[in-house]
Write a structure and sequence with these properties.
- The protein is α/β, with parallel strands linked by helices.
- It has a single domain (9-188, 228-254), classed as Rossmann fold (3-Layer(aba) Sandwich), CATH 3.40.50.
- 49% of the residues lie in helices and 14% in strands.
- It contains 8 helices and 7 strands; from the N terminus they run E-H-E-H-E-H-E-H-E-H-E-H-H-H-E.
- The protein has helices spanning 18-29, 41-55, 69-83, 106-134, 155-175, 193-206, 210-219, 229-240, and strands at 9-12, 33-38, 59-63, 88-91, 137-142, 180-187, 251-254.
- The longest helix is centred in the middle third of the chain and has 29 residues, at 106-134.
- It is globular and about 55 Å long.
- Bound molecules: NADP nicotinamide-adenine-dinucleotide phosphate.
- The site of NADP nicotinamide-adenine-dinucleotide phosphate has 30 residues, from helix 1, strand 2 and helix 6.
- NADP nicotinamide-adenine-dinucleotide phosphate binds at residues 14-20, 37-40, 43, 64-67, 92-95, 115, 142, 144, 187, 189-190, 192-195.
Length: 263
């Protein structure tokens, strides 16, 4: 099946491991050219060369911290210099830290906003002129189930991520006529390095073993397991491809039934 992704240039943020990596791999398998970033240069280049070896795709990487506007600009410009165009943007970043409300100062809130919201705004603002130049493009934001159902201890995620969904609805409306689509993928618990940290955090805070902490997470999931990163990437592939050509301004939960609300 032709997904319309052959030689499409995909910018995938925060892609050296976890969900971002799975998205870059999935898009590369579907024929896209990948420009990926993360902060740690060694881990990033290892991830990029693994994708190259596994898919034969053109994969380029640049160390970028998505909280730094000048680094985002440089990444976008260097991608266009190298590949002439950008057709797909997958926004992603590390998750904001788990902090109790009264111990979270203004500086930490600002850092959370820079990481989780401003990075998305800046990436989108950077690619839109390039999308307009080639007659359209696809944006997929990785957000979270926390948009619909607050996750205990993940205060900043619960508060800041809904703003990304507000941004999505606004921009979907504003840019639909220019063939620019924007949608969100909302993962539930997914077995990545990030989740190992959350499990360790729970062990500490609740004084339980790793197996007990894991069971606490999955007991709230009707499918009784966490997602594999590739299962999140499948939803990203749908939104990035022509399979979703009439879909914009929407959000897809990939959560094993975790969110119970009648949305
Ligand atoms: N896993 C889950 O269960 C789950 C569920 C819902 C939502 N999410 C959200 O999905 C996103 C990805 O989660 P994950 O589990 O895949 O995380 P992860 O395994 O910790 O991977 C995070 C990736 O982002 C990169 N990164 C982190 N901060 C960055 C920055 N400032 N600039 C550029 N790259 C950065 C990391 O590389 P460097 O450290 O080298 O930069 C790494 O490649 C997070 O926002 C998370 O909150 C995850």
């Amino acid at each position: 099946m032709d997904l319309g992704l052959t030689n499409q240039v995909a910018l995938v943020a925060a892609a050296s491991q976890g969900i971002g990596y799975a998205c870059a791999l999935k898009l590369a398998e579907a024929g896209a050219i990948i420009s990926m970033c993360a902060r740690n240069p060694e881990r990033l280049e290892t991830a990029a060369s693994t994708i190259r070896e596994r898919t034969g795709a053109t994969v380029w990487s640049l160390p970028v911290d998505v909280t730094q506007p000048d680094q985002i600009e440089a990444w976008i410009q260097q991608t266009v210099d190298r590949f002439n165009q950008i057709n797909i943007l997958v926004t992603n970043a590390g998750g904001p830290p788990a902090t109790p409300f009264m111990a979270t100062g203004d500086g930490q809130w600002q850092k959370g906003v820079d990481l989780t919201l401003m990075s998305v705004i800046r990436l989108i603002r950077g690619v839109i002129p390039h999308f307009q130049r080639v007659g359209g493009g696809q944006i997929v934001n990785i957000t979270s189930v926390s948009v619909y159902q607050p996750i205990p201890r993940l205060l900043m995620s619960n508060v800041i991520r809904p703003a990304v969904h507000g941004l999505t609805k606004s921009l979907a409306d504003e840019y639909a006529a220019e063939n620019i689509r924007i949608n969100n993928v909302c993962p539930g618990y997914t077995l990545t390095e990030r989740v190992q940290e959350l499990v360790a955090d729970k062990c500490k805070s609740e004084g339980v073993s790793e197996a007990e902490a894991l069971a606490m997470f999955t007991s709230a999931i009707p499918m009784r397991r966490m997602a594999q990163p590739a299962e999140i990437a499948n939803a990203v592939l749908f939104y990035a491809s022509t399979l979703s050509s009439y879909v914009t301004g929407t959000s897809l939960l990939v959560d094993g039934g975790f969110v119970k609300a009648n949305l």
